[in-house]
Amino acid sequence: MNDRAALYHGSYELQPDARSSDSSPGRIGIHRGADLLVKICGITRGEDAEFCVECGARALGFVFWPDSPRFVDPDRARAIVRMLPPFVTPVGVFVNQPADHVNEVAAFVQLGVVQLHGDESVAYASALDRPVLKAMALPDASGIEQWPAATMILLDAHDPVRRGGTGRTIDWTAAAAVAARRRIVLAGGLNADNVAQAMACVRPFGIDVSSGVEQAPGVKDRGRVRALFEAIS
Q: Which residue among the candidates 17, 41, 48, 55 is catalytic per the annotation?
């Protein structure tokens, strides 16, 4: 098993930094501690990444699916990742793309985690070099149980065309039922106005926010980012 898989065991405290081959204690990847894990997705600009980290984000998502309005070129993503402190984990979002391509981008950008937002299988994920965050759509998430417990599940709204970032909320009651069985990251239309209610209802391990903190696809709104973190503090 790749050492980076340690990101998905334990409490996320003092886990090896997935961006480094040095897995000595004290290098930190995604961490949670006593707080909610907050991932801000759809990062395309360095200034947005820095501000989200200042506010409290511990994971940032970079979309490498060309059909997304939040697509970011690997060269630009790599430059942004190099700016990040070691306790922030860069997550690459891919949709039904060849495993070799995913591994190449992950290595080049120095991603900590790969998020699969398409129809990828467990067998496909086993060919990847990074830990996997697997997106599943509600209400039909019948395939969740086939994924091993070490794979974190992200619950999002169903959209076979846009594959995330739709701004639509999901069924929180159904999400809570999944969260009671395994750790999940909750996505789907979260923003400063509804995130506290969503957290209380679902009790997720983490949240993933994209359109809810934007002024345009891939461009974050500082006021909305700040309001989100104030709502969950």
A: 41
pLDDT at 138: 79
CA-based Rg of the chain, rounded to a whole angstrom? 16
Tell me, yes or no, if 156 is annotated catalytic. yes
State the pTM of this model. 0.84
CATH of the domain at 172: 3.20.20.70
For residue 155, list its beta bridge partners: 136, 186
Tell me which of 17, 48, 156, 208 is the catalytic residue: 156
Task: Judge whether 201 counts as a catalytic residue.
Answer: no
Kindly state whether residue 15 falls inside one of the protein's structural domains. Answer: no
Please state the domain count of the chain.
Answer: 1
pLDDT digits (tens, 9 = 90+) for 140-182: 667 898 999 889 999 998 565 555 556 678 899 999 999 999 9
Assign residue 164 a region: left if phi > 0, alpha if psi is -120 to 50, beta otherwise? left
